[in-house]
């Protein structure tokens, strides 16, 4: 277990390093000049030269990279050009909003999609299941900006019971959560339905049923437990993706998360902020994946970490 | 056969611990970012800004709505009023000595910061020095040169410049004063000010601030107890927030949103003639012999543009066609002419000048002004009607339009560009756009290559002219000279527009698209 953890930790660090290094080079290859974004359209050539010197942008990309690595190992991710504050601090100001939205959306997804998927599997090929299928396909097909605007119009404008933007009250979490969760619920419920349908048709379920095990136990203890790993993997992957920010939902609901921060950082060519955001979100995504892997043996004792199947 | 190794801890235990940790983490995150309060309560208003206020200092960033909030916390020696005239704030005397060209300023004897320490001459000197030391400061560009401070006594000082700057009382409205010991040559994210409000919570990363009434304010106490400032980037979200009552004030709104909100119950719209000019500016770097290097050709092309239709149909009446080279609301601005729509005359003039088969390239950055793409497409059609072919090239924010503007990336003919003015002075806009010199053009730092030494000379003379009437005469002359060069294919001045809930009093919007937060009160 310790060796496994050490190996995974090493892999994770390498992945983060490669990701950040790739982003470091790619943002510098894109057109645009951070100095121009920083100083505005009326800056003189002299102003721009001073700003480039101030931020070390007149060094070669390789020299900038070496400085970046040196600072990275001392925990300094640089100063954001547009926020005039440590880039890491700016990301951490926004991160609670992103994690809150991601956690609440995944929680809602789990609470709704798992029972729905189980229900669909137990009623496979009935009219009710076909109806539920249509609903989930619709949920999967709806772009989140559209569902967000519709929810906003319904519950913030026509029946103004919920805030339309920001997170100044707890109610502010409701509409963004539902908007994000609609797509996730559609995806996860269909996955649960597929896995559960397979599990419920397995010989061990038939044997258990013949031995008089109740349908409730067959579904929730036998069937769901054996379907849990792919579902957990999917939930974890979706959660990790949400931690990178949900730009459209953040824009529609004025949610100050990491997604809109990245867009702004890219627009202003704020290199330190782009790098800090990528570093933090990549680290979080990798951590989530690691936690999911560690959870496998808890769900299924046959799984042993670090051993080939 | 798979060998089963019993775990040290039971699976149930681990799952329970995991669930508990997850719940704890979720709760801590929620607590971290959600305040305990609901919608703006009694004595509180909420402002929804279109751009993120990264700090309450303006050494680097100054956009219109930011000024409103920044000045509620940090004040300057003067401020610009609704009639675009300077008013004394921290100073009770601000006088120009015409003989020496220096200004004598005296601080009010009762001004102090929110921590009760007095505003001193050293604070002013330090502020001026640090504004000058910041790279890329927008504010410094407004000053022909930064003044230096010579103390006279503990409240009085002189402001010196190498050449007289006769409008320093206007310009100093942009220099916010902070205690010298707490000031730095960077944008400050904390610290005290002398304004009617103090910051009680600040999150520069999300652009959210909470201000509370400064109980030690040296002036009349503001009516509002608290002000909440939020960054809501999407205009439709700000409009919905205003309609639902979550936000009390939104500003810098587009014509479409203003139309949508106009007449809505509980919402009031305020408009003021603006100080920003949006132009379709010709490229003045064309070689001799190029049709666009000839003012007569440029003038002929202006007849092709139906400005009235653009104002009425695209901008829905929220702007005025320019009647001069700067907005006429500015102090010292002159009405120098008008854009006339007459496509037949355009074609006749072009024919008479021997210009046939002219093709122009129009460039602009997305969001430079409201309805930018619609305007450009309409202009393309209008030019086509007089036989002028045009191509449009749109740049995304953060791209390399500056390189294009300077002619380093490619050639172009017309640039869609806006030029704001936070001082209320025509002189500032003229200086920024039309005072180009051959020396500055060597580094392509003039305004689209506009280099006319006699124009630059007149602007410089006006800057130094102490007598207001004489200065305005000089300015009228120089504006007419510029107009006669036909620098713009078309230009318009958008209104400053603000929408607010009727539960608060009118915020007295100034043409510089800002208002005095301390003068706002709740109705009833």
From TrEMBL, chain A:
It is found in: Cell membrane. Gene3D superfamilies: MetI-like. This is ABC transporter permease. Belongs to the binding-protein-dependent transport system permease family. InterPro entries: BPD_transp_1_N, MetI-like, MetI-like_sf. The lineage of its organism: Bacteria, Bacillati, Actinomycetota, Actinomycetes, Kitasatosporales. One of its GO terms (cellular component) is plasma membrane. Keywords: Cell membrane, Membrane, Transmembrane, Transmembrane helix, Transport. Pfam families: BPD_transp_1, BPD_transp_1_N. CDD domains: TM_PBP2. It comes from the Bacteria. GO terms for molecular function: dipeptide transmembrane transporter activity. Its main location: membrane. Residues 95-292 form the ABC transmembrane type-1 domain. The chain crosses the membrane at residues 12-30, 101-121, 142-161, 167-188, 231-253, 273-299. It is a multi-pass membrane protein.
Automatic annotation (TrEMBL), chain B:
It is found in: Cell envelope. Residues 87-437 form the Solute-binding protein family domain. Residues 1-34 form the signal peptide. Gene3D superfamilies: Dipeptide-binding Protein, Domain 1, Dipeptide-binding Protein, Domain 3, Periplasmic binding protein-like II. GO terms for biological process: peptide transport. The keyword Transport applies. InterPro entries: Peptide/Ni-bd, SBP_5, SBP_5_dom, TAT_signal. SUPFAM superfamilies: Periplasmic binding protein-like II. GO terms for molecular function: peptide transmembrane transporter activity. CDD domains: PBP2_NikA_DppA_OppA_like. It comes from the Bacteria. Keywords: Signal, Transport. Pfam families: SBP_bac_5. GO terms for cellular component: ATP-binding cassette (ABC) transporter complex; cell envelope; periplasmic space. PANTHER family: PERIPLASMIC BINDING COMPONENT OF ABC TRANSPORTER, PERIPLASMIC OLIGOPEPTIDE-BINDING PROTEIN-RELATED. Belongs to the bacterial solute-binding protein 5 family. This is ABC transporter substrate-binding protein.
